[in-house]
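Sequence only, no structure available. Ideas?
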Amino acid sequence: MSAPRLTVLAGPTAVGKGTVAAWIREHHPEVWLSVSATTRPPRPGEQDGVHYHFMSGEEFADKVSKGEMLEWAVVHGRASYGTPRGPVDEALAAGKLPLLEIDLQGARQVRASMPEACFVFLAPPSWDELVGRLEGRGTETAEERAVRLETAKVELAAQSEFDRVIVNDDIRRAAEELVSLMRSD
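Reply:
I predicted one. Tokens follow.
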């Protein structure tokens, strides 16, 4: 069997990347999910080291300057997000099925440094469904939602940059399709 390759899952805000990743984490222990770092504050129920590595802007900038981030970006003009490089390299070396759940900017950076990775775009069933999911989350102000929806338009236009597109019309189905793709790669 050939060595597994990194799978990158990206898509617009509120499409359900985190929900699909959580379903995979719960049902597929053979998949290694990267934990991203961020400078934004935790949302209710989020735990440091589980959902994200929450850090200060200074700590994040230090890791970037030392080349310790596989990818990073300022998202929605507000917080920095990134993927620590070390754990990804370790997962690949150990023969695990590694999955990154990141934004479009991050996916583009990973493509530049790891073009052999498989890039999967998670798409909403429709624009109205995406808007409804974002509004239903209740975690952003009206201003933040407006910024995220403008960003989502740009992100949706980038689908053609990806190797595969999976429509998130059902969490379980989308997750199983992604894991099947990872195993067949």
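The chain has one domain: 7-184.
Hope that gets you unstuck.
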